[in-house]
Structures are given as C-alpha cells and as structure tokens.
Amino acid sequence: MRDGVIETDYLVVGAGASAMAFVDALTSEGDAEVVLVDRRHDPGGHWNDAYSFVRLHQPSANYGVNSRFLGTDSIDTSGPNAGYYERARGVEIRAYYRTVLDGWLPSGQVSFYGGHEYVAGGPGEHTLVSRLTGRTVPVRVRRKLVDATCLETSVPATHTPGFTVDPEATVVPVGELVGLAEAPGGYTILGAGKTAMDACTWLLENGVDPDRIRWVRPRDSWLIDRGSVQPGELVAATMEGFAVAVESVAQASTLDDLFRRLESSGLLFRLDPAVAPTMFRGATLSEVERDALRQIEQVARLGRVRHVGSDRIVLDHGEVPTSRDTVHVDCTAYGFANAPARPIFEPDRITLQSVTSGFITFNSALLGYIETARDEVAEQNRLCEPGVQPSRAEDWLDMMCGSHERVRRLTAESDVRAWLDRSRLYLTRGLRNHLGDPRMRSAMTRFSTNLEPALANIKPLLATARPPG
Ligand SMILES: Cc1cc2nc3c(=O)[nH]c(=O)nc-3n(C[C@H](O)[C@H](O)[C@H](O)COP(=O)(O)OP(=O)(O)OC[C@H]3O[C@@H](n4cnc5c(N)ncnc54)[C@H](O)[C@@H]3O)c2cc1C
Q: Do 173 and 294 have their domain in common?
C-alpha cells in the first residue's frame, strides 16, 4: 500500500467460481499479486444463495480450482446419478471455496475484499467500497483488471421476478420449498430451466405425486445426457459422445435433421417427444431424472408468467387456473448472463468467458494459464477466442462442435498440451491412458474422420435455422 492506495498486479472483480479458477491458475504459475473483490462476503458467487438441495450438474471431479480436489472422485452407486461421477452439493461447494481462499491468504499473494462493491473510475482508477462501512479503498493496478462478472449467475433467492403477485397467492423462491410447514393443495413450478427441473425432481424424490405438480414451461430445451460428459474411468463414453456429435454434424442436411440424429443416438434428450425444443443452455440430466420428469403431465406452454393471481395465472398467451392453496415456486431467474461482445484479452483488461465446450471453471483456469504463458495480447486472443454462450437450440453447434476447432488450436501448442494433461478440470484428461480400450480407439478414429467435414458444415446448417417464432 502506498499513500493509502493499494497496489496490485491484478484486480479481479467477482469471487465466484470463474474468478477462483482463474486466480488459482495465475498464482500457481507465477508470483503475481492479486486483489480479489466481491460484494458477497464469501467466495463462491451464486452458490452462496443457492437452494439447499442444489447440486452441480457436472461431476465434482472437473469443477472448482485445479490445485484442490472437490469431493472424492468416486462414482455413485445409488440414486438418480448411479453409474456416474459424484456431484457436489451446494453446502460442499461453499465450504470448498472458503477453504481454497483461506489457503491463499497467509502468503499475502492474494488479498480478499469480501462485502465490497467494485466501482470503475477513469482509466487505471479503481475503487472498492465497503458495503458495511462505506469506506472506499482506491486501487492502482500494475497489470490488468480482470472482469469475472460476465457470466454472473442470477438465482431465484436474490433476483426480482418479472411478474406481479396477488397478495392472496403464494409464490416462494425455490429455496423455500424445504421450509414449508404443511402440504399445500398443489405445486406450480414457474420456469423452464435447470432450476425448475431440480425443483420438480426434488418434489418427486420426496414423494409428491406427479399429478399434484403443474409446470409452467414457456419453452423446451435440448438436454445433454450426463453419461456423455464423464471424466476418468468413464472417459471413453465422453469420447464416443464427441464422435457421435461430429459425425452427426458432418452428415446432417438441416438443423432439424441434426437434432433428430443427436436424439436418436441418445446424446441429447427432450422432456416431451411431441414438442420441438427451441433452447439449449447446456443443462445435463441422467436418464433416470429425465424419466422422472416425464411423469409430470400438466405442462402449461403459454409463454412467460405475467401475473400470479389467487385463482388464475396470467401468461403471455393465455391463462391457467390456480388456487389459494397452491404453492407457486419461482424458478424464473435467468441463470448465467449473456457474454459481452469483447475480446478476452486486452492490454489492461481480461474479460473471463468460455473458449471451449468444457465447463466454466476449466475455461477460467485455462485463461489464467494463458495469461502467464503468453505475453502478446494478439497471441493470447488467437489461442482463446470466446465461444457462443449457449441459449438457442442451434447454439449446440458452437458449443459441442465448433469448440473442437478452438481446442485444436490450443493443443497444437506443446506447453498448453502439457498444462491440459496436468489440469484436473479438463474433462478428457488422461484420454491416452485408455487407448487399450477398443471403444476408445474406434471413437477416436470416428472423431478424426468426421471433424473436418463437421466444421465445414456448421455454417450451412446454421443457415437452415428457423426464424424465432
Ligand atoms: C443451480 C446451478 C447449477 C450449476 N451447475 C453447474 C455445473 O455443474 N457446471 C458448470 O460449469 N456450471 C454450473 N452452473 C453455472 C454457474 O453459473 C457456474 O458454474 C459458475 O458458478 C458461475 O460462476 P461465476 O463466477 O461466473 O458467476 P457468479 O457465481 O455469479 O459470481 C460472480 C460474482 O461477481 C460478484 N460481482 C458482480 N459485480 C460486482 C461488483 N461490481 N463488485 C463486486 N462484486 C461483484 C457477484 O457478487 C458474484 O459473487 C450452475 C448454475 C446454477 C444456477
């Protein structure tokens, strides 16, 4: 600190999962000093406000920061995730990030300003404002500002719903389901995303009859089969999934044809075979969870909720009846934000975004490594071009096929390849240890035969997208 001004190499705004993975990679590879700021008092971002029954959608084995395991790296033997790598609960994830941060602080290389708001000033001027005292802390940054808020996740506990509620109707955020004092007349789940799926799954697991659940689902999504995104001992299935994906893209004549192929191969699911999904946000389910959710037959597809009344719910395109003794469960928070239209690396700034189809924390760790390993911004951006943040069904093409081109660019660099090999967050790490498995060999051949034709077919397929209806 000089003249009351904190000096640091990197000022990282946000201390969620993205920031933590980035800082871990950056500080593991060098001696750069980091100031980490978050308006929340604890690290871990949105996980601090998640509902109590939340779990990762993906295996713990590939989530968190590279330098510390999350969970026990084991395969579940019972429950809806049986046969797949374990998925941490929210409480475990929150404790994990606190432990990671506490491990960093004693050396002084990383300082944490929890409960502080970041306020941007003029060029090179940064201020942190305590939410408790109002005290301001000026920060001078020697190298770069790191914006780790771009994928900021909105959750029902803290967002403002986009609908009004009659005083006599009961609407609760999903997290309050566990605190209900008595059984209501029925449940209406509001929202189409993974949080809504989690709420329905939890109610069904806890014995609620599917006929007592109504689901207000404005749009349907394509869902990833969890069996096709498994690390470690199950990585051959992941490679087979990659092979099926690129082969399907290479052979498809239209987007409709592509999704037919992906669905018939089992790589993608939809909840209702009679409804064409228009969304893809990377949500992942097991077959057991999918089959459970299909038991819910009361689905209202009349657009978004506008008003929850005491006897009816008003939607964009109509109304459905409800009652005073129904609990309406708000699962309408948008999840992660759209990525900004700016490069990841700039001379004085890094904007964390996803490069590959790998999970968010893997991508952030990769950017931390590239920041330490390459000096030139142009070269950093050549290696790390942002991918599309998935939202529409056709975004599957960039995430699950186009991103292989970006991975190829990265793995052409021997140091990056070596980093990937030691990165526990990398889904297909250790793939070469499975070359004795004929399934793996055949998947790799199928993948490499189809990759070029698939990449060449992305644009023609996108041209067949239907205009949004
Ligand atoms: C239920 C659920 C399950 C999920 N499961 C997975 C999964 O299995 N795998 C996966 O990859 N992703 C999953 N995700 C996506 C999830 O968004 C990411 O994994 C990750 O947690 C996002 O972290 P983040 O750091 O980008 O965002 P956040 O967690 O939102 O963190 C951003 C932080 O920035 C802070 N901030 C913003 N602006 C300021 C400011 N001006 N000053 C100070 N602080 C600021 C916020 O307080 C926040 O803490 C899941 C999401 C949900 C909702």
A: yes
Same domain for 134 and 278, yes or no, is no
Q: Indicate the residue among 294, 320, 335 that finishes a domain.
A: 335
Decide whether any atom of ligand 1 lies within 6 Å of the 360 Cβ.
yes
Q: Are residues 196 and 318 in the same domain?
A: yes
Range of the domain at 15: 6-152+337-411
Mean pLDDT lowest for which of 20-34, 283-297, 349-363? Answer: 349-363
pLDDT in the model for residue 400: 83
How many Å lie between the centroid of ligand 1 and the Cα of residue 148?
9
> pTM, whole model, 2 decimals?
0.95
Kindly give the distance from the C-alpha atom of residue 325 to the centroid of ligand 1, in angstroms, as a whole number: 34
Q: Kindly report the CA angle at 43 between 361 and 120, in degrees rounded to 5?
A: 90
Q: Each residue of 368-403: pLDDT tens digit?
A: 999 999 999 999 999 999 998 888 999 999 988 889
What atom in ligand 1 is closest to the CA of residue 119? 41
Q: Which pLDDT score, from 0 to 100, does residue 2 have?
A: 57
CA gap 56, 146 in Å, rounded: 25
Q: Give the distance (Å) from ligand 1 centre to CA of residue 460.
A: 34
Alpha-carbon distance of 255 to 466, in angstroms, equals: 9
Q: What is the largest CA-CA distance in the chain?
A: 67
Residue 3 has pLDDT above 60, yes or no: no
- Compute, in angstroms, the gap from residue 231 CA to the centroid of ligand 1: 22
